[in-house]
Amino acid sequence: MAQNLLAAINDGDYLPGARLPAYADVAAEAGVSRATAREAFLALELVGALEVRHGDGTFVRGSDSTTMIGRAASLFAPPRDLVEARLHIEPTVAALAAERSDEDRIAALQRYTDEQGELVDQPDQLTRFVALGLEFHADLAPGCGNVLLADIVCQLVNVERHPLWALVNQYAAPDLASRQRQVDEHGAIVRALGQRRPQEVSALMQRHIGSLARAVFEGSGLHHTMEGVRP
Fold first, then answer.
1. What is this structure's pTM?
2. Does the domain formed by 79-226 have CATH 3.40.630.30?
């Protein structure tokens, strides 16, 4: 859906400064749900292609930004594909990290977890909370000692490469209980890393990403994108 809107913008169907139709109209024309249309609008707003003027509507930004976004259109991998890739790759990477990570890296991961824990009951700090969670995964990966595997994981959790992560992770942490669960799961992973238990770390990572999948795709309007993926 986001790709289709980008194509329409770059083809000149919507010129810079033009007001886009409402979610419902776009959804009806494309034959998708309003939730899917809203997701696409939010993704394009996050990366600067669209501007929301409250009370007035959603508008296409200037030509410089739309040209830049057009070059980045391939970055809009569906959330389902991102989570599926993580489910298959990160448990293996985490298991290797349990064998190869040094103490400094494990200590850094604990600091991420501790800071997240301090923000659990501060909903106004959700953006920082989400960023810390993604940094946790990005910094755990190089501990596997395999440059290629680490780079794949870092790309998968990079918001600049996959702007929908900002939206996906906000769906996954809407309340105190869900944020605390993420902190507890990160904490369990760090403890198993420190104890050098590869199989346990792998299982914990699988369960953790499975929790993300369930929170996002079973508890929101995005559930249809996760069909066929089960942790």
1. 0.67
2. no
